[in-house]
Every structure is written in C-alpha cells, then in structure tokens.
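Q: I have 654 residues here and want to know how they pack in 3D. Can you give me a structure?
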Amino acid sequence: MSDPAATLASLLRSSTIQDHDEVLKAANAAIKASKGNLRAQHTRVVALLKLDRFDDALRALAEGGDSLEKECQLEKTYALYKSGQLEDAQKAVASAPGSKSQRAFRHVAAQISYRAENFQDAAATYRNLLNEGGGLAGEENDLKINLLAANAQLEWNGLGHVVDVQERQPSRQDLEAFETAYNAACAYIARGDFTRASVLLKRARDLCEASEDLSADEKKAELLPIMVQHAYVLSRSGKNTEAAALQKSIVLSEIPEAPTRAVAQNNQVAIGAGERNPYLTKRLTESATALPDSQKLFEYQASVLRRNRYALELQAQKFQGVESSTRSQILGATIPTASVDVANLGVISAAAHTRLGTGKVALKQILPMLERRPNDVGLLLTIIQLYVQMQSPGPALALLETFLQRLETATAPDHEDVRFAPGLVAAAVALYRLQGRQNSIRMELARASAHWRSRSEPSSTSLLREAGVELLRSSNPEDLAAAGATFEKLVAQSENDMTAIAGLVASFATSDYAKVEPYLQGLTTVERLAAGANVQALIDAGVAAIPVPVPMSKKRAADGDPEKDKAVKRRRKKRLPKNYEEGKQPDPERWLPLRDRSTYRPKGKKGKKRAQEATQGGMVKQEETLELVGGAGAVKVEKATGGQGGKKKKKGKK
C-alpha cells in the first residue's frame, strides 16, 4: 500500500482548481494514518474552503488544536467571514500578527468591512491596495471592481459625499468589463440617475454575453443579477411594460444567490402589484425573503422589503397590527434621529392610525399622536406634507420651527446633528420659499453650514454647496466670509470639485486675492466662457430678474401715501335694456310702479270693478265732510243714499 502522505504530496504538485474533492480525500487519508500531520490538516482546511464548506472548515480547525489555528489564521478568518460570523472574523483579523501589512489579510479585512456595512473602511482599504500596486496577476481588476461596489454602497446609504469626485464618474476602462460597468450602474441607480444606469446595464449585459472566458452556466449566473437590476431601473423609469417583459424572462429558481433571489421576488411582486390579491402577495413575499444568517440582505435592502411588507399589510387592512409593530420599533429606537429607516416607520404608523386617510380628517387624527411622540421625525414630516397639500404652509412651518427650537435647547450632542440634518434643513428652506422669506432661507443655510464646517469628518456636500451658493448672493460681508469658509471646506474634502473651487474664487476674489490665486489656473478663462456670445444683444435685452414670490400673509398692509393709496373709482359700463332701439324715445313712465302707469289694466272681477270706478263715465261716489267734536278736525266719508224716501219696508204678516 502506498504512503498516504506521499500520495497527498504528489496530488498537490499536480492539482488544479477542479481537484478539490480528490485533495480532500487524500488529506483525510493522510490524517487517518497520522493525526499529527499538520500539512495534511492544513490541506484539508483549504480544500473545504474551496468547496464552500465553511462550517466544516471551522470544525476541522477546532479539531486540529492551537497549532493548526496558528498555522491557518488567514483560513480561519476567511471561514468566519463566509459563515456570517463577522464580529469573530474582525477579532481574528485584529489578533493576527502582521495583518495590517500582509495583502491577503487586508483583502479579507476589506471583505469583512464590506459585509459588516462599514463601507468607508472597505473603500479606503481597496483604494490603498490599488494605489500601492505590486499585487498578483489580475488583482488590480478585482480591486477596481470591489472599489466601485463599495462606492455604490456608500451612495445607497446616503454617504455619496465621501466618495471622491473622480471615482463617482466611471472611466473608459470601467466600461470594458461587465463587472465594473455593472457596479458603476449601481452607483447611478443609488443617485437616482436611471437613464445612465440603464445604458450601463445594457453595456454590462452585452459584455457578459460576449465574454469568452465564461462558460454557458457562468454567463447565465452572471446575467441574472444584471437583468434583475435592469428590470428595477425600467420600472423606476416608468417603462412598466418593458420591465414586466424583462421580469417574466427571469426564472427565480435559477438565481444561485439567495439575496439576489429575494430581491428579484420582491421586484416581481412590486411590478403590477395593484392587480394582485394583497393577502396572497404578502404570503408569497414572506416565503421568498426568509434568508439564513450567512446570506442576509444589507440593511438598506432589508428596510425596503420591510416597507413593502407593511404596505401589503395596509392594503390587507391590518391597521392595528401595523400601528402596534411600528410604534414599538419607534419607541425602541433612538429618537429624534436622522435615520431614514426610523422616519419611514413614522410615516407608516401615521397611515395605519388614519386608516389610509388624507386631508383634514387624517390631520385631525394624527396631530394628537405628535403630542405623544414629539420627537418622531417621520410623523412630523407627514403632518407637514398634509398641511402643504392643503395649501397651508403657515401651520406646517410653525410646527417645524417649534421642533427645531426644541432640538437647539437639548443637551444631547446628537440632537444638534439631527437639527441640521440635510432633509430637515431642506424642508425648512422649502417652506420659507413658499412664503417668500429670503432672509430666513439665508439664515437657515448659514447656520447649517457653520454646524457642518465644525465637523472634522466629511460632511454633506450637497448641503454645503447650496449654502455657499445662497450666501454668495448676499451683499453682507459676513455672509460672503461664511460662503468662503464653506467652499474651503468643500475644496478640502475634494480638490477636484470645480464647483467648490469656483465658489471659493468668487468668495475671496475681492477680499483675499492671495487665497484664490492658486486655483485660478484650474478655472476656465473668461474669454473661453464668453466665446460666441453676442454681448451687445445681451445688453440690449437687459437684465433678467427672477420673480420673487409674494409672501402669503393675511395681515393688512401698512399705511402709505394717502394720495397713492386712494382707490380710483371705476365707471360702470352703461347697461341698456334688451329691447332697446337706438333713436326711439323711452317710455317716460318707466320709473313708476306698474300699477301707477296709465297703461295698467288689472285682471279679474275685482280688478275690472276697480277699473270701472276709476274710469270716466262711471258712478261717482258722493262724499261729505264731517266736523269732529271739539274742533279736532274733519274727515271725509261717503254720503249715505236713502231708498224710497228713507222709510223702512214693513214686514208682512205670517
């Protein structure tokens, strides 16, 4: 019988990537012959990792003892990472000697950070490895792919401002491989640019189908995630017919990865969900999203699926259950908070409490909820939205200002970050703009800029940029200085941000020329910017002024010049009768009542009798004047007419 150790050594010398089962059998045979064979134990662990049997690899490491674990620190870290034990994997990396200098450990550390959703650390590690160079063949391409994936995850989590400006735009090389094109498309999806994302996804699909390095099964496995993402993009772009057709071509059972399969199932339910039974749809979604711990979705993905589940439950009229579940999660979280997930729970809770109501009725029902949960940002924004829909920005702004003032007086340090959260600042600016309060807009942005400039870590780029632009429009020297400090912060975060450089130059051009002189060479010259412009035509056209919205106030205007304030009386236009004929003399009795006109002819028996009495030739009533006693005056009465000499007719005898 041959020696198992010699057989294993011979097999290792001639092994390829397809020999993992044979290597595992030979390693088990060598360990059976000699339990202390450290090389055979190490080989068994590597073979188990190659076969994706990570739990078995951890058991083999535990059976080998301390000597084997010391020899296989990298393998143990990788097995912990792949089995979903991220905290233990991070501890193993931190305790391994030379883990910060060895490229293999740094690769695994970056993967652990990525899966633990520490995307900034993962991106920084990949960027450092890429800049250092000196890796294995093909390692540079893998690093570019992973760096683009980490940047896309930062965009999804609202941290796109920490990504370098150059890395946010895909290079020509990124469009030559389907993996990099796909990751670049994901970054555009996170930013809401679905047009460019659709183009890049088509590019990634074409490159994958044309690849000669992949087998038919490998191409199919790589194409399915691209198709799932493209169906989502088409749906968000309003192309529901194309999205439904593409979604039908995806066979869910053929998707190898469970998280991708869950996302595809969710998208399939979302497309055309209005025509389905919400009870059956909810059961189908719950069965598809049950994932093991080692294959969990990222938090932003799980958050979307939770919201969709709550939406289905609201459609199924499970209002009490949804309200109870969301209320318990809100009260268990740290509030106030700028977390989007917690804010969404506040919106769903309000929808469940009002039974999907809207308008004044819903507003009357959820205002008492705000008194019980005054720090619920999602509930507050829901009420503000209802007020705006009712065209009542005044009460909405009053509620928001009260909430912001309460945060300013709080002693907790995180409350100040919530106070100047970009979303709340944007809501306040929008409400101020509805009322035409430009000074309040400038003051709010200046305070937000001052707060985020004081932070050492990268801050919200979009908020600082808008604040700097708004402050530049002011003629106040303090506002201009604040604008300059804001753009200095942006330039320090990214030296390639041309908007920040231009704002910095505009801020200090007249006050501190030495500070802006190093940046002048990087800006486009005025001659090039004005090339082709007809200056004289612009001068003749005049300066265009943006109309300022009139403040929505119900107060009476202040008294001004009495001569100017006098209202000019408008002459009413003469109204003519319908039967008016020009040149014809109007009836002179047209102003008299109808019965007083000469043409009046009453109708009926009584009317005819009165007419006979009033007409010429009728019986004339005889009147006589009687003097009242005591000289009190006189009255006219009708004179009595006597018949037959004034004698009464005698009654006849019966």
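Q: Anything worth noting?
A: The chain has a mean pLDDT of 82. The radius of gyration is 44 Å.
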